[in-house]
């Protein structure tokens, strides 16, 4: 039951994020147009601004409901074209059915001085219906997706073939939509009252309500469910409803855009804009980066700067914060709790001091500078931002030092460099895609592929077949293991990767491609068996190894003698002379670790083995110790060789 509920939530989240991703683009266009139409602008600018503001606001923001309906339906089904057609038809059918039933039962509201505002009804595409806002699109989108997925493959007798498949699901959707439209006329007023009560409850909580929102926003980020919190507040009546320039507007983000476009007539900024005051893209990344640099070992500071500075720039320009946040989420979770509290505090203090403009990435924040200071109090942005930066910096620095947290640069960077060396750099696209497919347990184990703003999300059938270590070898900011749902933090290029992976998987299933058997995808996912200089197996001074007679691999020289497991797996063989150990990883690949060359003649004297046959071992676990001096005194080569044995 729990798994079913979680999967349903993931499915819904996947569908709803698709249309939201386009709203940011429309919002940028509207913001620029709103600035152009302000009073101080030249007349020609104002006219151009009026033109684009009216078109994009009405065409996109004013049509959010149908955009969400089509977007969700298409996102949740594989038959996207049929689902989109069905969604548009269902949306129009709902409007006419809802209006007809309200008319038939004499329940159409009368317009007052403020039009239909406050009556619970509204004009949608010129038709008066129950005012459901974006909720209508969300509900219908999910309804369409259900029928298309459930009945889209139904087959009939050949004489009825024109009505089978998605045509049958279309019929079911139409009649279900009519029934829903009738039912809504009775239940939506109650639901609407509950939504209003929720909004009023959050409003009555004042600044503490904003703190709770900010805190939960960050706490939900690791599991990728944070957009289920902010999306309703940004685009639905849960973020408030008001009337601006004669139009009813719902959702904090929509209210912000409407007020920005009509700023010359605005008396005060709507309280809901407090949900948009987000210092997480600039103030906090700067503080975190400075704290990491300050607490790093002197010899590591330059390397740490090279890692954190690009993440700060990315956050400031694109609002993508995962790369810097995931630098400490898994290594120092206590910092994440502190970060979440500070995140909530930023919303709290902004509301207390009366900051009422949108704050985010640099492009998102710039339009706020054009709001009159008396309304937005945006002079507080550098004051609050600077204060939050200082606070977060000292909190992070103090906790890292007092608790001796293993943040980046605190430990020797050799391990980091080795990890970089062993992280796959996709020399060609197919090799990288093959790495992901192998890491997911093969194409037959992949159930669904989708993405949000920054994450590649992958549903699998059997979590036991997933090789997280191999997935981590693909260039990313981190991998989140949620059993049957895997998330790879990619960044702003995630959509391109998702599309490439979908095409690759489709080709694999159609037999038009094969998963790369290049052993590099496995080799590069390993931890080195020793700390030293890694060399190709071709450079090993023994023909049995360099000619790959046993298999592909690599070697490590100039090491300290400690031998570690390169993978998670099981010990399957320990040679009697202790100079070699055989392992089998979780995917069944057999691996030989050979300590030295021609060391079999030393009869085990320089070796101490810490494991036994049949024992389960973790990647990086100490397997054995080699007395390097004894090996060299015997005139033997002491390099450690790793071989992927041919099965």
In brief:
The protein is α+β, with helices and mostly antiparallel strands and 647 residues long. 50% of the residues lie in helices and 14% in strands.
Structural overview:
The chain has 647 residues and is of the alpha+beta class. It is 50% helix and 14% strand. It is built from 23 helices and 18 strands. The strands form five sheets. A seven-stranded antiparallel sheet has the order 9-10-18-14-13-12-16. A four-stranded antiparallel sheet has the order 5-6-8-7. Strands 11-17-15 form a three-stranded antiparallel sheet, with no helix packed on it.
Strand arrangement across the biggest beta sheet: 9-10-18-14-13-12-16
Low-confidence stretches: 414-428
The total of helices stands at 23
* Mean of all residue-level pLDDT scores: 83
Give the structural class: alpha+beta
Task: Specify the helix fraction band.
Answer: 40-55%
Largest sheet: 7 strands, antiparallel
Kindly estimate the percentage of residues that lie in beta strands according to DSSP.
5-15%
Shape: globular
- What is the end-to-end distance? 41 Å
> What is the count of β-strands?
18
Rounded to an integer, what's the Rg over CA atoms? 30 Å
Q: Secondary-structure map with pairings?
A:
Blueprint: H1 2-36, H2 43-59, H3 64-75, H4 80-104, E1 121-124, E2 127-130, H5 134-151, H6 166-204, H7 207-219, H8 227-235, E3 241-244, E4 247-250, H9 252-261, H10 283-295, H11 301-318, H12 322-325, H13 333-353, H14 362-365, H15 373-376, H16 380-402, H17 413-422, H18 429-439, E5 446-451, E6 455-460, H19 468-472, E7 478-482, E8 485-489, H20 494-509, H21 520-523, E9 533-536, H22 543-546, E10 553-557, E11 562-564, E12 569-574, E13 580-585, E14 590-597, E15 607-609, E16 616-617, E17 622-626, H23 628-633, E18 637-644
Antiparallel strand pairs: 1-2, 3-4, 5-6, 6-8, 7-8, 9-10, 10-18, 11-17, 12-13, 12-16, 13-14, 14-18, 15-17
């Amino acid at each position: 039951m729990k798994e079913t509920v979680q999967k349903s939530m993931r499915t819904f989240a996947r569908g709803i994020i698709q249309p939201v991703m386009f709203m940011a683009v429309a919002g940028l266009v509207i913001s620029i147009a709103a600035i152009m139409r302000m009073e101080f602008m030249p007349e020609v600018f104002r006219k151009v601004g009026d033109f684009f503001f009216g078109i994009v606001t009405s065409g996109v923001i004013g049509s959010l409901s149908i955009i969400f309906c089509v977007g969700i339906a298409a996102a949740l089904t594989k038959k996207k074209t049929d689902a989109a057609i069905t969604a548009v038809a269902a949306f129009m059918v709902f409007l006419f059915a809802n209006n007809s039933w309200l008319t038939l039962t004499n329940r159409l509201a009368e317009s007052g001085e403020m039009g239909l505002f406050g009556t619970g009804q509204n004009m949608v595409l010129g038709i008066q219906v129950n005012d459901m806002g974006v909720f209508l699109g969300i509900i219908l989108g999910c309804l369409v997706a259900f029928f298309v997925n459930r009945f889209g493959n139904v087959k009939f007798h050949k004489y009825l073939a024109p009505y089978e498949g998605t045509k049958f699901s279309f019929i079911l959707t139409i009649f279900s939509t009519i029934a829903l439209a009738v039912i809504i006329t009775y239940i939506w007023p109650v639901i609407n009252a509950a939504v209003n009560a929720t909004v009023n409850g959050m409003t009555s909580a004042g600044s503490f309500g904003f703190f709770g929102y900010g805190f939960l926003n960050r706490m939900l980020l690791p599991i990728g469910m944070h957009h289920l919190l902010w999306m309703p507040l940004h685009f639905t009546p849960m973020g408030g409803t008001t009337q601006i320039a004669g139009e009813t507007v719902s959702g904090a983000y929509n209210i912000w855009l409407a007020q920005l476009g009509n700023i010359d007539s605005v008396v005060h900024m709507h309280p809901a804009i407090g949900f948009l005051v987000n210092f997480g893209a600039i103030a906090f990344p700067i503080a975190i980066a400075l704290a990491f640099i300050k607490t790093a070992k002197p010899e590591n500071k330059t390397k740490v700067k090279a890692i954190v500075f690009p993440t700060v720039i990315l956050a400031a320009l694109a609002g993508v914060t995962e790369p810097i946040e995931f630098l400490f989420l898994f290594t120092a979770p206590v910092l994440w709790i502190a970060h979440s509290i500070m995140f909530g505090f930023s919303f709290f203090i902004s509301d207390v001091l009366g900051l009422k403009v949108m704050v985010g990435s640099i492009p998102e924040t710039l339009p706020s500078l054009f709001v009159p200071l008396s309304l937005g109090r945006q002079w507080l942005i550098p004051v609050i931002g600077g204060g939050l930066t200082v606070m977060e910096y000292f909190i992070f620095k103090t906790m890292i030092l007092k608790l001796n947290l293993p943040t980046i640069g605190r430990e020797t960077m050799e391990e980091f460099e080795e990890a970089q060396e062993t992280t796959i750099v996709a020399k060609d696209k197919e090799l990288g895609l093959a790495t992901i497919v192998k890491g997911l347990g093969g194409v037959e184990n992949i159930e669904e592929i989708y993405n949000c703003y920054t994450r590649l999300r992958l549903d699998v059938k059997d979590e036991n077949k997933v090789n997280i270590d191999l997935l981590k070898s693909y260039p990313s900011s981190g991998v989140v293991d949620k059993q049957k749902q895997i998330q790879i933090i990619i960044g702003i290029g995630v959509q391109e990767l998702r599309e490439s992976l979908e095409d690759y998987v489709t080709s694999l299933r159609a037999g038009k491609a094969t998963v790369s058997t290049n052993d590099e995808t496995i080799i590069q996912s390993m931890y080195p068996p020793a700390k030293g200089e890694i060399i190709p197996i071709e450079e090993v001074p023994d023909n049995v190894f360099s000619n790959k007679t046993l298999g592909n691999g690599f070697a490590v020289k100039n090491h300290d003698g400690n031998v570690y497991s390169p993978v998670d797996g099981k010990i399957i063989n320990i040679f009697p002379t202790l100079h070699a150990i055989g392992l089998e990883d979780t995917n069944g690949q057999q691996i030989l670790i050979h300590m030295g060359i021609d060391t079999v003649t030393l009869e085990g004297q320089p070796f101490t083995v810490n494991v036994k046959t049949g024992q389960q071992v973790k990647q990086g676990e100490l397997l054995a110790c080699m007395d390097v001096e004894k090996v060299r005194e015997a005139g033997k080569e002491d390099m450690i060789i790793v071989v992927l044995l041919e099965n």
